[in-house]
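Much of the work behind modern protein science is quiet bookkeeping, done one molecule at a time. The protein below has been through that process, and both of its lines are reproduced in full.
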Amino acid sequence: MSEQPDHYFTARPASDAERRTLAVQLAGREVEVDVAAGIFSPGGLDKGTRVLLDEVPDPPAEGDLLDLGCGWGPIALTMALRSPGATVWAVDVNERALDLLRSTADRLGLRNLHAVTADQVPADVRFAAVWSNPPIRVGKAALHDLLGTWLPRLADGGDAWLVVAKNLGADSLSRWIEAELGLPTRREASSKGFRVLRVTR
């Protein structure tokens, strides 16, 4: 019986953990990031995340910022580079991804970035902004649970920016957020088969 391949939402991937360094463009500069197998998009910046980063405004200069489902960290790194006065929380279930992001942040001197599991974020933290390429493939129930946990933690006046493939239910997810979470949600952009949703509080 063959082994099942790792999913990027596996907590402890079993695949080879050999690290590689990639050069990517983030926050208007080239940075070196650490990647490995068993995480989301180990070959570089995925199309959806690039669409999100191209469309979002600059993050708030201070306060707590969240990258939900951070992977190796392109969104969290962009937030931390653009807003050195803010505290960036990069949350993922994948411990390998978090280790990779910690080493990248350390190399870049980003002391304002915390790569952690969900239970390591203090319960009283409210977020001035949430940016996410959410893990759609975990399934609808798990995705709704994830967003239902974190989006209500937006601070008053805060925004969440989500990128979701149109063919993976971006429009129905937008309706669900409004109906079930009571948070106004609108499509801010469409590009390359993706929707960028803005959720406001």
About this structure: The two ends are 49 Å apart (CA to CA). The chain is about 25% helix and 30% strand.
